[in-house]
Amino acid sequence: MMPKTHGFLLGASILVASSLFLSSRLCASALTSEEISMQLTRAELVRLAGYGEERISSVLVAGTLLCDACLRPGSDPVTFPVPGARIGVGCRTNEESTRKTNWTCGTTDEFGEFMVDLPSHLHAAPWLEESCMVRVLLMPKECLCRSNPGMVFRDLKLSSGGNNIRVYSAGTLRCRSEAVSEQCSQEREDEA
């Protein structure tokens, strides 16, 4: 048989070990609940990152699309705005292994002006002026000018910033009606 003191010590050791185990579990669960109470909800994180309905910042790319066309052979070219053209703004992002271009589109208004709102994940892109480009994707059918698929405009400049809004200007984009322009220039050369 075991002496009573040895059994008492063994029982006390088990009691101390189990209480230490339980207290460590309670502390761990208290710490976890404290961490949880300090964390933001998913909705708050989404709102703070600018992805929610209420955006924290906006980055806009604005410009004007004009068409230079010679309406009659021998006449001076006429410049007019192009309403209803589809404009694309593409921004390159450096990802780990690939270089990807994210495109966002907009449409010109009756004055040929466009304003494209960039998605939130591009707001913090470094060197936005160098990593983004503007392209005329589609011209209206009734327009004399046609879009050239290789025509890309890369001269974005920060035109204003404040109140969590940055506006980059693409300036004035010009398209030409090649067939009409060639006739116009041929007539002028024939006259000279």
TrEMBL record:
It holds the Pfam family Pollen_Ole_e_1. It comes from Musa balbisiana (Banana). The keyword Signal applies. Keywords: Signal. Residues 1-30 form the signal peptide. This is Uncharacterized protein.
